[in-house]
Amino acid sequence: MSYETLIDAETWAFIRETGRHYPPDTAAADIAAQRVIYDRMCRAFYAGHPKGVTATDTRVQDVPVRIYDHGVPQATIIYFHGGGFVVGGLDSHDDVCAELCARAGVRVISADYRLCPEHPHPAAFDDALAVTEYVALNRPEKLILAGDSAGGNLAAAVAHRCRGRHPVAGQVLIYPGLGGDRTRGSYRDHENAPMLTLEDIVFYEHARFGGQCPADDPTAAPLVDTDFSGLPPTVVFTAECDPLADDGRDYRDAILAAGGKARWINESGLVHGYLRARHSVGRAGASFDRIVAATKMLAKGEWHD
Q1: Helices (DSSP H) in 46-122: which residue ranges?
Q2: What are 11-20's pLDDT values in tens digits?
Q3: Distance of CA 10 to the CA centre of its chain
Q4: Which active-site residues does the annotation give?
Q5: Cβ atoms 36, 68 nearer than 8 A
């Protein structure tokens, strides 16, 4: 795979800057050190809050959350952060959530679910579901589930579980890992991609499950579900240069085959984690514009193919 031609100069600069703060050997460090390094890297790209956004820390069903408000919301988004289920938290995605709140006109509730390996699966899923169920019962506006990477996995898994129990108006999934077939497609074409490799995915899986992902557990890998009917309208964003790219395509196809509404946008030349590059890389900024537009669409209860 020739990344020299697929990836533009701006994105390469972002990759190098990320590596300066989060070097490749970070995975060899202990978990506590990995979290410190990851948080420091996220802080290096931190863009602050748009004017007028308020952020309040509280707890929902004993899960720490941060609630972002900016005027009267059209919908509430529950946002699950990325980080391989091992790193990340309320601070790592703080500016992303604040910008999504202001630009899309929605309330954002960021959930600080428990991390692995201290809390193996299904702890993160249980926390995500608990927050979603509480918000669904206590907020009058539309509910949208969103997340990036590991958080995209949680959003989808919760959407599957909530069918027939709690109304969810939509999903916005950003380079999610959904449990696709690692023997083919993007998993092999991009197994050594910048920012996320197949080896990294295996590392995070071992931390989450203590071994391989369960073979038939959609709360761990939504793509292994046997029923994709009744899911909310879904927009999936993936990065072209990412082992996980085909998960977005396959998830869209499964929803469409079951009669649902889904769209897959594979962002040309981008890499896993590009949300942090939205202010420095033109392609990433354009993708974030599309993420905001998709969020607005779902918040209004609309669907545009």
Answers
A1: 94-104
A2: 999 999 999 9
A3: 23
A4: 149, 242, 272
A5: no
